Every structure is written in C-alpha cells, then in structure tokens.
C-alpha cells in the first residue's frame, strides 16, 4: 500500500497542475474577451445606406470624427455611384465599425476569422465587418494615396460573405498573374517601383484589382483600362463577379 501511495502522489500533483493551467487559460480567455467594448456601447448611425457603429472614444474627438465621417461619406458616395445594384445591395449589408485608435499604425481592415477575433480580444460581432481602426490615419492615408480604401475593405467582406474564400475563378486568375509575374515590379502612385500588394494573396489580389476596376488603385494598374490591358484574365474575372461598372448621378446632382 505504501509504495502504491507514493506513486499516486505525483499523479495527483500533476492533476492539480493541469487543473490550474486550465483555470489560468480560461481566466486569460475571459480577460481577453472582457477587453472589447460591448456592441451596445457603440453609437449606431446610418451613412449613405450603410450601418455604422461608432465607438465612444471616437465620439470624444468630435473634430477628428467629423473629418473621418466626411471622408467615409465621400468614399461611400463614390462606391454607390459605380457599383451595380445587385452587388451594391450586398455591400450595404456590411456594417462599418469606427474606432478611435485601435491600431496606431493601421487605418482600416476586415475581420474574416471568428477564432482570430476571440483569441485577440476583439468583439465577435465584428466578424465579416469593416473596421476603421484609426480615425486619423484613415483620413490621412485615404487623401494621400488610397482614395478607394473603403471599397478595398468592402471587397474583402464581399469575397468572404458572398463569393466564398475558395472562389475558383479568383484563384485561377491570381495563380496566372503570379506565374506570369505581372505584379512583381510595378509602379506605386508615389513613383517607386516595387512588388505589388496584390501579390500578397488571393484576397488582396481581389481587393486591389477591385479598386482599379471601379476607381483608382495606388499600385499599377491604376485604372480599369490599364487593368484590362495588363491583366486581362483578372479583368474578365472581376467583370464576371461585379458586372460592368455603372455611372449613377451623384445624390443631389442635376439630371
């Protein structure tokens, strides 16, 4: 009995350690989950047919928030002017969350992983939503080089909410562009030549080309005409996904 008892003691200790580790992991997950601001604390707004959720910290900076909302409105109006009805209706279902400064070196993003949100202490309601994670950077970067930043992020949301992450046409077009090195060294809007952001992965390929297809991208090809010549497979793929761009009059404009 004595020898058997001696063997059981270490197992009991290990069991206690395992239980303690499990408790610590649970506590850490709970603490991380508690880091985010509950959805009901955000101020709901509507802008150009899109639902906004504005963080209280952003509201505490009225001048900067006003600039952010002005820039957002301008971009949403441009999106509504050129995107066809059917995909536009899908884009309008994507909520836009506005934070004051979640990321010091960020501007906007889309969250497509529930696991990532959970593990990083983010509000799970942000899944498949656009997040402006830094009001000031969003305005500065948009006005400097990325006037279609919001469409870029909405394209990510459309990719995962509507098309599916494994869309065959996009994967084929991306693979061909990569194989042909179409984006290995292209011009940036600031004049530099470098590897295009579109080569990051198929997600960025779709979002970057969508900017050029409907508006203007910060990497070559900058416009739809340049895209059609430079990457005809990519152009036709986007045309099949989005349909031909439209040209609606601006709201309030004379007919």
TrEMBL record:
SUPFAM superfamilies reported in the protein's UniProt record = Metalloproteases ('zincins'), catalytic domain
Give the highest taxon in the source lineage. Bacteria
* InterPro entries attached to this UniProt entry: MetalloPept_cat_dom_sf (IPR024079)
Which positions carry the signal peptide feature in this UniProt record? 1-33
Keyword list, A-Z: Signal
From the UniProt record, which GO molecular function terms apply?
metallopeptidase activity
Spell out the protein name for this chain. Metallopeptidase
Species this chain originates from: Schlesneria paludicola
